């Protein structure tokens, strides 16, 4: 007879309540039956064995910084939190890899490898609070992804506990390997619906030079978008190329005076970590910006100044919190449609009478339009949010560039994927989690979870 | 009632015979019932619909340059050859992507995008004869992968025909996207066992400078391996870092006099496409090589000379064809175990009385030991081949870095993967190809293919 791991499990309602949600807006959260704070692989195995036997849904959680409701509680579920599995198991300098548990914070890993002259590039906006396990679950991106790639590009191997509690290793420590299906990449981005990740082997790179940066101001976002295309068309791969629209600049200005001119139409920030070639790259950026009608361009001479130039972009998220409520989107479009996306978002904001501040990873075409609204505008905000996703799809893009589907966007996944792709999702989910206990109803609308079979006395 | 596409299908025994095999050694090939040379998506759809209805195994083929028997005929199968689907559909310079049909030759695509100032990095040794579809099926690598990544790192989207003939799109044209499971990466490297790829959207990079190169000579492979570690430890990412052992150099010397000194123990070749920084990178390589007891180092001044330095490495494959028979392996180990791998291979060669010439992508730890033998040594050659894979696994590596499992290594896959991973493979195969008609018995040992149900009169 299995049981939940006694020492790691609680059913204290106050504690459960504190773990019920991630950071998504407008996502329901149910009442969990228990919280397991796993401190060992064995805790995870035991939890899944028990849940599998009893047909109880399990919601895997890390530090719950997700923005799509994928870690919110389901009624009667076990919350399986792995944030205490937070050990950096190994940093292998010669092989340029690290092995970490899923609860390690992104910035903690980045700092630890930096001390050894190495670099872990994926840098989601949440890097100071989000865990590697969560980054893997959503295949998180960030600013540096334009040059270096997203989380999945750095995952070499996983240890995963399957729905029935069996432990599986995927991938390998080697730089290359094609023995069998790419299970590693299948589990990356699967948002806890196929298994629970308990160890991650990541590839590292040699440390780069501290970045320099340049900032350009434009009268219109269209000009800024043209500058993005012009700069990338010149064959440069900047370490970041970030856009802020007028509403974002205004929100940041309200939070802190960084000297952004009032009434600016758009801001573009480029970063280069190319060392001795950084000034050359930033000069090329300045040229592109001026060619596209930039009203001013400031190029940093040293890394400290560069850091200051990036500060406005980094404060965008915080600046949105001055508003009563926010709903952050994550559409990604082909770069040539970036201007059409930003224009369309302005139309949508006007139509629904809400404010939408748009900023994001312009070099990747990945924007984070944030609907900023009063509580009595909740319906309009959600309609605007939906229209932004619809627009992203119409422009040949995707509903999510890096945040994931979770609960928030699962209805929209069916609009993005064709029927055969949806069928493949369901088949794979059914094949690897036949009882449907792993984060059911997230990503894809799976079938019933067998909750009715639950033996209430088991825990 | 379905039928095979009349205009594209032949059952002429002479033609069938010509299409029965890829380039693997020691892999059986059966007698196909028919060959479909698809010229349209519809031909592929119709073939799979028919095969699915009748439970007939289908072996997808490109230009049949594979080295693991994955494209060899099975008794009674339909060979579904897509080499005539060879159109470059689109090169989008602004988005830096190309859309190609699977039969496009790797080098053809590379040349076409180069004309537009772009670069498609994956460069398998077979690049002049292998197709993008085959590269995708095996997740092919190459020399440039050390710096740029393998085929899968450049695949953004696929059009795939599923086992039952339904057409599916995976992925997207955008730089990023996490909507749903990463079906693209699941199909990359699946060797025709999950679906037939009919269109590939690849990411491109801006063109790089024509590479410069340097060559270093050593008395022992151990010295050369230390130089690899030293060079990469210095934070350089060369565009290629290739090793040739003494037996490889001897084989090349027999083919063509390139001025390689007789009796050299090992050769290391580094390539840099870093433009103005290339001389600096190659100077660092020379430093590492001399530190590790290189007997001589030659650094090229210009791209034409660099090309000459690479010629020896490029001729390795051809030089092996001077021997009566060859069996090329593809193990990949953690870089620190490279010297142990090469040493162990020498011991294995001595034990079985065969010649093994080892060369490959030292920077990735991916070696191609080639067993060179007389026809009466076939048993010894296969035993030596098996021992090399065993050694690779013992050293923490994989049985295949870039060639794939196919038929040749399917028994070995079960040694590399754990039980849960093998189970996951079987579940996924069963989920996406329930009748088991797609390249059955390749990669994984799947169950019976339903061949007994075949209606012989259907074709």
TrEMBL record, chains A, B:
Gene3D superfamilies: 3.30.465.10, 3.30.70.2740, Vanillyl-alcohol Oxidase, Chain A, domain 4. InterPro entries: FAD-bd_oxidored_4_C (IPR004113), FAD-bd_PCMH (IPR016166), FAD-bd_PCMH-like_sf (IPR036318), FAD-bd_PCMH_sub2 (IPR016169), FAD-linked_Oxase-like_C (IPR016164), FAD-linked_OxidoTrans_Type4 (IPR051914), Oxid_FAD_bind_N (IPR006094), Vanillyl_alc_oxidase_C-sub2 (IPR016171). Keywords: FAD, Flavoprotein, Oxidoreductase. The keyword Cell membrane does not apply. GO terms for molecular function: FAD binding; oxidoreductase activity. Residues 28-207 form the FAD-binding PCMH-type domain. Its cofactor is FAD. The keyword 4Fe-4S does not apply. Belongs to the FAD-binding oxidoreductase/transferase type 4 family. This is FAD-linked oxidase. It comes from Kibdelosporangium phytohabitans.
């Amino acid at each position: 007879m299995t049981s939940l791991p006694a020492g790691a499990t609680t059913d204290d309602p106050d504690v459960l309540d504190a773990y019920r949600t991630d950071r998504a807006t407008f996502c329901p959260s149910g009442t969990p039956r228990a919280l397991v704070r796993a401190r060992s692989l064995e805790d995870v195995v035991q939890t899944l064995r028990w849940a599998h036997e009893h047909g109880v849904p399990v919601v895997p959680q890390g530090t719950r910084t997700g923005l799509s409701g994928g870690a919110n509680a389901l009624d009667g579920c076990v919350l399986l939190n792995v944030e205490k599995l937070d050990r950096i198991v190994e940093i292998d300098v010669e092989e340029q890899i690290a092995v970490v548990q899923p609860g390690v914070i992104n910035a903690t890993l980045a700092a630890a490898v930096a001390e050894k002259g190495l670099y872990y590039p994926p840098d989601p906006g949440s890097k100071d609070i989000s865990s590697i396990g969560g980054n893997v679950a959503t295949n998180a991106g960030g600013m540096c992804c334009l040059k270096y790639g997203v989380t999945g590009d750095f995952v070499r191997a996983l240890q995963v506990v399957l729905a029935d509690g069996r432990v599986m290793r995927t991938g390998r420590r080697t730089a290359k390997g094609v023995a069998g299906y790419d299970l590693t990449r299948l589990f990356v981005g699967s948002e806890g619906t196929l298994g629970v990740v308990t160890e991650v082997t990541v590839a590292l790179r040699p440390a780069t030079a501290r970045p320099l940066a340049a900032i350009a101001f434009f009268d219109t976002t269209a000009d800024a978008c043209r500058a993005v295309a012009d700069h990338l068309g010149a064959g440069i791969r900047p370490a970041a190329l970030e856009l802020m629209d007028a509403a974002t600049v205004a929100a940041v200005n309200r939070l802190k005076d960084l000297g952004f001119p009032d009434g600016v139409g758009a801001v573009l920030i480029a970063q280069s970590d190319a060392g001795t070639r950084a000034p050359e790259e930033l000069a090329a950026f300045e040229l592109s910006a001026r060619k596209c009608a930039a009203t001013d361009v400031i190029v940093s001479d040293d890394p400290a100044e560069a850091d200051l130039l990036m500060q406005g972009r980094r404060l965008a998220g915080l600046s949105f919190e001055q508003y009563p409520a926010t709903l952050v989107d994550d559409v990604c479009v082909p770069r040539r449609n970036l201007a059409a996306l930003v224009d369309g978002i302005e139309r949508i904001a006007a139509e629904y009478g809400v404010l939408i501040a748009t900023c994001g990873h312009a070099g990747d075409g990945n924007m984070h339009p944030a609907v900023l609204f009063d509580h009595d505008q909740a319906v309009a905000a959600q309609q605007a949010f939906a229209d932004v996703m619809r627009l992203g799809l119409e422009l040949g893009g995707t509903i999510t560039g890096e945040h994931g589907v979770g609960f928030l966007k699962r209805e929209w996944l069916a609009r993005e994927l064709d029927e055969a792709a949806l069928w493949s999702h369901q088949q794979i989910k059914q094949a690897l989690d036949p009882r449907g206990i792993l984060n059911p109803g997230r990503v894809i609308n799976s079938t019933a979870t067998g909750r009715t079979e639950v033996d209430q006395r088991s825990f």
